[in-house]
Amino acid sequence: MAPKSRRQFGRGSHPAATFSHDVLQAIAAEQCVADPASGSSVLPGTKVYHDAEHRNSLLRLGDGGIALSVYQFSGTYLSLAMDIPGQMQGRLRPGYRLAIDIDGSASRPQTIFARLNAQTADDKIVLHEALVLSQGARRVDFDLETLPGQGVDAAWVDIIFSRPRMVDIRLQRVQMELGSA
To answer: Closest Cα to residue 176, out of 117, 100, 103?
Structure first.
């Protein structure tokens, strides 16, 4: 589904388009995956990655979003890699900002990292922010001033959970919003 577009004013006096995309709206049916393999697609445009050789985890998708129950986990990270839709990706350049709103909870505070990955023909640019997920909404803003003026060829956001063990994590909403800086 294409991102929604609306008009809003940025810092300047000229209106700029703001594009919004709800990643979890792609959940079409209830499903449950036990011990998902690294690189597994869990939603259109969303894959799970990890470095755990041994794991005991359960990933559930449904109306309530994504629920992840991690018991034993020998790895250092578990990541949800989410593609940035083409209409937004084509506008990733200086003068814009990308905000990621994460509404979720964890059975105990969990350090997560939001990482923006932008690929050009010649380079890969990585921007990241750390936050703690316990209960409620969190926002990460990426200032895109370091991106090349001509834009990027590919882009995605990783939501990375650091050493998840003995924790229940629920993501009710992951919203990407691109607007003028």
So the answer is: 100
